[in-house]
Amino acid sequence: MNRVTKLLGIQYPVVQGAMQEVATAELAAAVSNGGGLGIIAAGGKTGEEVRVEIKKAHELTDKPFAVNLMLMDPNTPDVVKVVIEEKVPIVTTGAGTPKNYMTDLKGAGIKVVPVVPNVKIAKKMEAMGCDAVIAEGMEGGGHIGTLTSQVLWPQIADAISIPLIAAGGVADGRGVVNAFIAGAEGVQCGTIFSIAKESPVGDNWRDAVINATDSSTVVVGATIRDASRAIINKKTDQLLDLEAQKVSRDEFNTSMNVGLRNAVRKDNAETGVLFSGEISGLITESLPAAKIVKQLVDEAQDIIDNKKIELA
């Protein structure tokens, strides 16, 4: 047991990414039942819609799970109330600062774990009273920052005293070991869980990830300071064209959100936005979430136990 597993009440230091439209109660419960921490994504949902997902997750697992707050979402105040009422033990946060909600969340005994893109914000989150941080490198899928995991993780590990969970480019045991060597005590994985058997995505999304190579993703939205990584297709080409036309951020995000819904709800791999990380090229099959958790841990332990490296 390390600080992350103890803090979150989980068996293995593996956290599922909070993927809008994808991180449902079913996926979160499957990850939690497998010994990791499953997360329900609240972005784009009303408070009552989130309540339905929380209640469903409680029916599917007796293990801890979290709700992710997308803080720029106008529904966030209502979602926070629901999270407290439904006694969710952990929240992760993104797209803003949790400052305005810290008193209520901490007063309810909820662990607060924000996603951070750099050292400055990580230190602010620690000073604010957050329990841990998730440091996500730009290799990850979905919304990303500008720093790579390789440089981000160790610098944040050196700058804070609360636990670090590493995200961005982890899909096998090698990634887990790399994260722990860099100073993390847990990992968050998105892309590999996005195509888990319990994920709501369809076969076309799964096939797109499984057939991806190291160069199959692209960053869109960087010029409007809302960068996201997805698998290259007709929709990402369209989004890049919108950037070139210098459309407003709202117009760009509206188009991207329509694409995300097309991807998840219609399984359209060409007009949909398939948020995926650069690690897609390593993923070769869709597995049950619990098996993914165990495989990540077992592979990492095998490397630690058996890898012999000679530097000279």
TrEMBL record:
The lineage of its organism: Bacteria, Bacillati, Bacillota, Bacilli, Lactobacillales. This is Probable nitronate monooxygenase. InterPro entries: Aldolase_TIM, NMO. Keywords: Flavoprotein, FMN, Monooxygenase, Oxidoreductase. GO terms for molecular function: monooxygenase activity. The keyword Oxidoreductase applies. Nitronate monooxygenase that uses molecular oxygen to catalyze the oxidative denitrification of alkyl nitronates. Acts on propionate 3-nitronate (P3N), the presumed physiological substrate. Probably functions in the detoxification of P3N, a metabolic poison produced by plants and fungi as a defense mechanism.
